[in-house]
Amino acid sequence: MSTDLSTDAVACEDAPAPKPPNASRIGLIVPSSNTTMETELPELFRRQSEATGHRYTFHSARAGMKQVNREELLAMVGKAADCAAAVSDADVDVIAYACLVAVMAQGPGAHKESEQVIAEAARDNGHPAEVVSSAGALVRTLQAVGAHRVAIVTPYMAPLTQMVREYIEAEGVEVLDAVALEVPDNLAVGRLDPEGLPAIARGLRREGAQAIVLSACVQMPSLAAVQRVEDELGLPVVTAATATTYEVLRALGHTPAISGAGRLLAGEL
Q1: Which residue ranges does the record annotate as region Disordered (predicted)?
Q2: Which of 1, 85, 97, 224 has a CB 3.0–4.6 Å from the CB of 133, allowing a cystine?
Q3: In this structure, is residue 3 part of a structural domain?
């Protein structure tokens, strides 16, 4: 039996198939060792979909990074444009650059340039998309909800945690306390137990705080603890993942309607 592979029989498309109605494609640029962002974000958007009926699919590009140190972080930054072009081939609506500390390691305000580089790469590839970064999402979300004083938790070593603190403060948000869990291996960060976060949050110096950043890292699992900490401490709780979700929804023009992940994503802030 012969198979006809002539151009008349096989339609070769230059572009991805059209998106189905009532659906959005979200592109992610993640570290190669990421294990958390690609689980927490789909779960959050599953809840959004359950509430609204809108469908979301995820499409990832990976940039090499195993150890959370300045050298590997800056090397990852150099791959962002290539990753953006690759993931834009899926004709995504939004690209989320999901490594907060890789951006912040470049110095204050670096999220603006990173987002521009990614947007240009997607546009030059013929598939323009909205762009958010986890670094930009965190600081903009804190500003948007009026949280000018916060306490934060990070998995990073102390010097990187101090750098994150200074980055956030350069955006006009005072960091009252910063806990560094000091886990240098990114896979090990992804294995941290979110059940330990409520106790860590209780120990934060939070007098005068207007919000808690329970995880200033998209790789540190935190979703299971967000609502619990918010209910217990009575303060809004934001994470790198929930802030990124919030900004992706805004970029799509969608109103947050996510349950069990704090007031931010319930649309109550």
Answers
A1: 1-25
A2: 97
A3: no
Would you say 218 is a known binding-site residue? yes
Q: Cα–Cα–Cα angle for 252, 253, 258, nearest 5°?
A: 85
Looking at the structure, tell me whether residues 78 and 63 fall in a common domain. yes
Residues annotated as part of the active site:
99, 217
100 a known binding residue? yes
Q: Which tokens go with 20?
A: 């189905």
Q: Which two tokens stand for residue 158?
A: 């102390």
How many independent structural domains does the chain possess?
Answer: 2
> What is the per-residue pLDDT for 17?
64
pLDDT tens digits for 77-132? Answer: 678 899 999 999 999 999 999 988 888 988 899 999 999 999 999 999 999 999 99
Q: pLDDT tens digits, residue range 251-266?
A: 999 999 999 999 999 9
Is position 92 annotated in a ligand binding site? no
The pair phi, psi for residue 134, each rounded to 5°, is -60, -35
Domain CATH for 148: 3.40.50.12500
Q: Name the DSSP letter for residue 126.
A: T
Tokens of 11: 């339609």
The verdict on whether residue 68 carries a ligand-binding annotation is no
- The answer to whether 219 is annotated as binding is yes
Q: Which residue has the higher pLDDT, 14 or 111?
A: 111
φ/ψ (deg, to 5) at 38? -80, 5
Write the DSSP symbol of residue 268: -
Whole-number average pLDDT of the chain: 91
pTM of the model: 0.90
Residue 128 lies in a domain: yes
Which letter, b or e, does each residue of 23-46 get, where b requires 16 or more Cβ atoms within 10 Å of its Cβ?
ebbbbbbbbebbebbeebbbbbbe
C-alpha dihedral (74, 75, 77, 82), degrees to nearest 10:
170
Residue 179 has pLDDT above 90, yes or no: yes
